[in-house]
């Protein structure tokens, strides 16, 4: 594998598919790859008081992982801009508009999207998000003062914007809030451990790891298996409650390929190495039971990736 998914993330931004399916190419800018990567691991202290709030300019192409106030001021027309926001797995993001001075009637817009969009793909997928797609876009020019604050449903959100006139400006205030029942998550880190719980809700939840990793599923419990005898147990998809492990090179889970399905409750480790740009643990829940899956993950080293490549697993990751 030549690139991790995080590297491809910024390459894909160059052909970002933006608002309502229109494809536009990102403008050239002065953001370095290292600057963007640094946002994932920033340890800037969060402060609530207004005078201590973190502030910096917002760039046309930006990645933000901290709370703060971010101001964009156009020095020239910027026709295809996007800012990606990411929080911890157990957090959601609120984006507030402030000091907006753009020409809506002249074609300018600022649109918050509940999730991420890249190269025509969306996270969470339409199958996994609680809102219909049209409700996930909130356009400032359409809503104005009626909707000056937008909260995400998961730990990622993004803002598309276009301005034509030099001097046009706006400010976004980004805050984070604890989510007691996280569902769809993109991990900031290539290593970690997580437990996903769905408390008797009819929904699908995904944990997306944008790195090639080894997954160790240590425990999961789906509840429904006690209702089936060993001889009558149906296929996983027929039970209505199961865990999927998916892999591929995009962010839309509905377009990733299934590696394995798990639907028999157990305690004990299951190790799987996935050399894909994106590795996803997905829980499908009927809402009749409390579903729970615990897993840990670590980044595969170059030797492990080479072994996967020699075993032709790379075709699985890239030819989907």
From TrEMBL:
**Keyword Methyltransferase included in the entry's annotation:** no
Q: Which residues form the signal peptide?
A: 1-23
GO CC terms, sorted: extracellular space
One Pfam family named in its UniProt record: CRF-BP_C
Biological process according to GO: hormone-mediated signaling pathway; negative regulation of corticotropin secretion
- Subcellular location, in the record's words? Secreted
List residues of the Corticotropin-releasing factor binding protein N-terminal domain. 53-177
Coiled-coil stretches, from where to where?
none
What molecular function terms (GO) are annotated for this protein? corticotropin-releasing hormone binding
Task: Alphabetically list the UniProt keywords.
Answer: Disulfide bond, Glycoprotein, Secreted, Signal
Q: Which residues form the Corticotropin-releasing factor binding protein C-terminal domain?
A: 185-306
- The SS bond pairs are 60-81, 104-141, 183-205, 236-263, 276-317
As for family, the record states:
Belongs to the CRF-binding protein family.
Q: In UniProt terms, what function does this protein have?
A: Binds CRF and inactivates it. May prevent inappropriate pituitary-adrenal stimulation in pregnancy.
Protein's name in the database = Corticotropin-releasing factor-binding protein
């Amino acid at each position: 594998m030549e690139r991790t998914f995080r590297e491809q993330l910024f390459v894909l931004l160059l052909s970002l598919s933006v608002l309502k399916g229109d494809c536009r190419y990102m403008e050239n800018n002065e953001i370095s790859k290292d600057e963007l990567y640094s946002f994932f691991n920033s340890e800037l202290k969060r402060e609530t008081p207004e005078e201590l709030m973190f502030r910096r300019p917002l760039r046309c192409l930006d990645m933000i992982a901290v709370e703060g106030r971010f101001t964009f001021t156009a020095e020239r027309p910027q026709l295809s801009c996007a800012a990606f926001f990411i929080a911890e797995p157990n957090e959601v993001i609120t984006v507030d508009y402030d000091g907006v001075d753009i020409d809506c009637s002249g074609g300018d817009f600022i649109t918050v999207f509940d999730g991420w969009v890249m190269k025509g793909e969306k996270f969470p997928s339409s199958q996994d998000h609680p809102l219909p797609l049209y409700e996930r876009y909130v356009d400032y020019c359409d809503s104005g003062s009626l909707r000056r604050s937008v909260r995400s449903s998961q730990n990622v959100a993004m803002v598309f914007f276009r301005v034509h006139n030099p001097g046009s400006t706006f400010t976004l205030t980004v805050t984070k809030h604890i989510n007691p029942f996280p569902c769809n998550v993109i991990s900031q880190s290539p290593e970690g451990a997580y437990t996903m719980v769905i408390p008797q809700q009819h929904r699908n939840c995904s944990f997306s790891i944008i790195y090639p990793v080894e997954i160790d599923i240590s425990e999961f419990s789906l509840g429904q298996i006690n209702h089936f005898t060993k001889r009558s147990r149906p296929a996983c998809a027929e039970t209505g409650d199961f865990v999927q492990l998916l892999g591929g090179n995009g962010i839309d889970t509905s377009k990733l390929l299934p590696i394995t399905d798990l639907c028999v409750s157990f305690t004990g480790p299951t190790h799987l190495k996935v050399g894909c740009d994106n590795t996803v643990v997905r829980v499908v829940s009927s809402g009749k039971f409390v579903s729970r899956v615990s897993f840990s993950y670590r980044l595969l080293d170059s030797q492990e990736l080479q072994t996967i490549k020699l075993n032709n697993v790379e075709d699985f990751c890239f030819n989907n």
